[in-house]
Amino acid sequence: MKTSSPGRSQSVVLCLSLAVFSFGSAGLQNAVAQDATEAAAAQKHVQYDFRRHEQVVAKAIDYLKTKGQAADGSFSAYGGPGLTALVATALLESGQSPNDPAVRKALAYLESFIQPSGGIYAPESTHRNYETCTAVLAFTAANRNGRYDDVIKKADAFIKGIQWNAEEGKDVSDPGYGGAGYGSHKRPDLSNTSFLIEALKAAGNDANSEAIQQALLFVSRCQNLETEHNNTPFAAKNPDGGFYYTPAAGGSSQAGDTPNGGLRSYGSMTYAGLKSMIYAGVGPKDPRVKAATNWIRKHYDLSSNPGMGENGLYYYYHTFSKALEAVGQDEFIGSDGVQHDWRSELLTELARRQQTDGSWFNETSRWLEGDRNLVTAYALLSLAHALPHEGSK
Fold this sequence. Notes:
- There is one protein chain.
- The protein folds into two domains: about 1-45; about 50-385, Glycosyltransferase (Alpha/alpha barrel).
- A two-stranded antiparallel sheet has the order 1-2.
- The chain is an all-alpha fold.
- The chain has helices at about 10-20, 25-45, 50-70, 80-95, 100-110, 130-140, 150-160, 190-200, 210-220, 235, 265-280, 285-300, 315-325, 340-355, 370-385; strands at about 330-335, 340.
- It is globular and about 50 Å long.
């Protein structure tokens, strides 16, 4: 990623000087306003602690390369290829080359799971969508000179083929329509569907593609908000604008139920839902995005996964970072009026939690977060998407 240059303010002064000769007074005022805005954004990015970011990331990369990877190129193979795919993606998004020995070995390991169907998963896997989607993210991040074009194209067709839609015998009225699931449970869920949308986007599908729009319908039904897109019984029972795990198969929230039978919203799913909606082309004025943003304003937190405590904390950090990057704002104002520089705050929190060996882990080990490889991958992905870059405002 390209970062804003600390010398940007000098170029702003030069632009202002040139503007005197190029514009009339009105043009000059416009130029001053535009350049002042750019200067403020550049100065904010100068304040981001790039050196600390580099140090934290370097320690994590060293841990994964020297302690995390097995001889066959895998990372925590017991967790299936999805975990290695997440680590490979994290390394690539942290600036490592596809030709780096550790990355190359991880990619070769993932290639061994490519199936004739186009899916990328372990034989007899019950996590075909998750494993294929995470592999797509790794292969698109590593794709150079069309090396993985065919693999990505076939994987794209595969995940579309197992999406819950008419081809799977699902009617649009089914609350699971458009979603994706692990396969071990007879229902789709928001976590798998958010990976689906991200993989489809990475594979080159635009927001208007049929698969992404079908997935958007499912995402909308995971929100505690009654709209024309969501008439599930849960929305009216807890209309707080947040998101939960799934409305399918009777509905489920990892944060539990409300006393009246609603499903509690929680942080990681709310950020996953918001991110997915933005990727699917839903704009900031849409009631769904407004409601999700208001929920986040009320529950902004980096010390825990709101509604879940320490459960799934690092998964939460990675959805938090990707969602706020997609929103496109450096600052986020909480409902208490406090203005948060979320990028710097996330860096500070992750730096505080990093272990001396460069890894992270969660003492609350639910969802494999006691695994240092997985959690370190989540942390690196969080930092990669928090890093200020050209165009962020």
